[in-house]
TrEMBL record:
Subcellular location per the Swiss-Prot or TrEMBL entry: Cell membrane
Annotated ABC transporter domain residues: 21-253, 270-518
PROSITE patterns assigned: ABC_TRANSPORTER_1 (PS00211), ABC_TRANSPORTER_2 (PS50893)
Membrane topology: Peripheral membrane protein
Family matches, as SUPFAM superfamilies: P-loop containing nucleoside triphosphate hydrolases
Keywords: ATP-binding, Cell membrane, Membrane, Nucleotide-binding, Repeat, Translocase, Transport
Name the UniProt record assigns to this protein: ABC transporter ATP-binding protein
Species this chain originates from: Streptomyces palmae
Length: 532
């Protein structure tokens, strides 16, 4: 590990293979915040370079600068040895820098070919030449992309490969990936890392942002740690442990994880029975996306649902929240049938909700933090008093949440959009936990959250569980699912197909169960039927 103040990079001439990207003295200020302060990074060509740091450290800002989405206030960018001015992503792409965002930007009802060529028709047209180019790239890097597949039929990992291919198709030699593994199961992560190794063996360069420190150490050639907007260390992966890396990020020791204890009672808090929901698919066929779901979550219990994204988890959550009308079945909360109640009443009855897509359901991005405090809880204290909205109550309580949940922000008047992703998530969790829910529906509660904040959030959920909170946990982070759940069930094609014991199952076994394979540790509730 190099000292914090030491210059990060050597002059290009000294670096074998050359330098793909060199950032020098990058500073970027926003009102009340210095997001990047005098950052230096040298990215060697043909390597995987990881960028780690706690929430709000300045990673995304730095990458947006490299991708031409934002202009630095100070500093220089050199790509392949040439100092450049980037005014837009198009500028960055023309210099060979491409970015794959965390939220995929593909059009579902188009084919892979259509998606890849959209906006890049000038390169190879939209016909045979384009198809041949896609196949060539796909074969060269082992991406396995089929040009005629409909994007809506693809799983998350395949969509990600299409996004990577799209960037390569446009001529990128340096790829920026923003938390690429957050949505993948372990087997898919391995496959992605194989793809990254292929890319670098062909001389391409990958820069990726991640909070999963074990993964970072397994795939990165170089690691840069950013803390509070500045580079604090340049780390040699082979000589560092995840714990050391975490400590470099947060600047202090992490609390050790708590041992498993059971707080599960006999009292049912949520009972779902015979829940069925149909949707019409692209061929006009009615298909059950939720098929006769039955589950009970008791007071003090965390029920984890494992499943590859798109197997009905989102629909289950939305049906329980009253955001979708099921075709059959009942939902009972604390003894009361809530099946026909509107979402707001369900929330007032004691359901807390951490949504999967925080931009669509969790936040009003252009509104200040204190207005976001009110969202979903308009009629409840401290946002409301004697039936009237109470902005000063909401403001005071937002200050409290910001302090208690360590939301890094210059104040509560800034917009939610100006918070870093992890800090947006902490605000939502703070808001939902503040209403002392009976049932918490938590979809990917720590997605995008740094390891320090993740430990805190897990502790907060465990603490509330000890006091009787029931939790429905959906997560792509298998360590989180196994670590937090008292009961684990596997969802596959709209059905709960198996139960797993969180005390004994490994992330790899759970990963195979999720992809539909039978794993030794699983008690199959009902075998998954093909072609339903
Ligand atoms: N458009 C903006 N306006 C105002 N402040 C911003 C804006 N974008 C980022 N910031 C601030 O800059 C700082 C760095 O944010 P950034 O998103 O770069 O962090 P990050 O390291 O990517 O965090 P995370 O891990 O949570 O995604 C934060 O304090 C954030 O609130």
């Amino acid at each position: 590990m190099k000292a914090a103040s030491a210059p990060q990079g050597k002059p290009s001439a000294d670096v074998p293979g050359g330098v793909a990207v060199e950032l020098r003295g990058i500073t970027k200020r926003f009102p009340g915040v210095v997001a990047n302060h005098d950052i230096d990074i040298t990215v060697r060509r043909g390597t995987v370079h990881a960028l780690v740091g706690e929430n709000g450290a300045g990673k995304s800002t730095l990458m947006k600068i490299l991708y031409g989405m934002q202009r630095p206030d100070e500093g220089t960018i050199a790509i392949d040895g040439e100092t450049v001015e980037l005014h837009s992503p198009a500028d960055a792409i023309s210099r060979g820098v491409g970015m794959v965002h965390q939220h995929f930007m593909l059009a579902d009802n188009f084919t892979v070919l259509e998606n890849v060529t959209l906006g890049a028709e000038k390169l190879y047209g939209i016909g045979a030449k384009a198809r041949a180019k896609i196949m060539e790239i796909s074969d060269a890097y082992g991406l396995g992309v089929r040009p005629d597949a409909l994007v809506e039929d693809l799983g998350v990992a395949d969509r990600q490969r299409v996004e990577i291919l799209k960037v390569l198709y446009r001529g990128a030699r340096t790829l920026i990936l923003d938390e690429p593994t957050a949505v993948l199961v372990p087997q898919e992560v391995d496959a992605l890392f194989d793809n990254l190794r292929e890319l670098k063996s062909e001389g391409l360069t990958v820069i990726f942002i991640s909070h999963k420190l074990g993964e970072v150490l397994s795939v990165a050639d170089d690691i840069t740690v950013i803390r509070r907007g500045t580079t604090v260390a340049s780390v040699e992966p082979s000589q560092t442990t995840p714990k050391q890396l975490a400590e470099l990020m947060v600047g202090s020791e992490l609390p050790s994880p708590e041992t498993r204890e059971s707080t599960v009672t006999d009292i049912p808090m949520l009972t779902v029975d015979g829940l069925t929901l149909c949707a019409v698919d692209a061929d006009g066929m009615r298909r059950a996306v939720l098929d006769d779901i039955a589950l009970t979550i008791r007071k003090g219990e965390v029920l984890g649902i494992a499943g590859v994204e798109g197997n009905g988890q989102a629909e289950l959550v939305e049906a329980i929240m009253g955001m979708r009308t099921p075709d059959g079945g009942t939902i009972t909360l604390d003894g009361r049938d809530i099946s026909k109640l509107p979402t707001r009443t369900r929330r007032e009855d004691g359901i807390g909700y951490i949504p999967e897509d925080r931009h669509r359901h969790g936040l009003l991005l252009e509104a200040p933090l204190w207005e976001n405090r009110i969202l979903g809880h308009v009629t409840e204290a401290p946002n409301s008093r004697r039936g009237l909205l109470d902005p000063s109550g909401a403001r005071r309580d937002t200050e409290r949440i910001v302090a208690e949940y360590d939301v890094r922000t210059p104040g509560i008047e800034v917009t939610a959009a100006s918070l870093s992703g992890g800090n947006q998530q902490k605000l939502i969790i703070g808001r939902e936990m503040s209403h002392h829910p009976k049932l918490l529906i938590a979809a990917h509660p720590t997605r995008g959250v740094d390891v320090g904040a993740q430990t805190q959030i897990w502790d907060q959920i465990r603490e509330a569980r000890r006091e009787g909170l029931a939790v429905l946990l959906i997560s792509a982070d298998l360590d989180e699912l196994i670590g937090l759940s008292d009961t684990l069930r596997v969802m596959y094609r709209g059905r709960l197909v198996a139960d797993a014991d969180p005390a004994t199952i490994t992330p790899e076994e759970l990963g195979s169960a999720m992809t539909g394979a039978a794993a030794g540790h699983l008690e199959t509730a009902e075998g998954p039927e093909e072609d339903r």
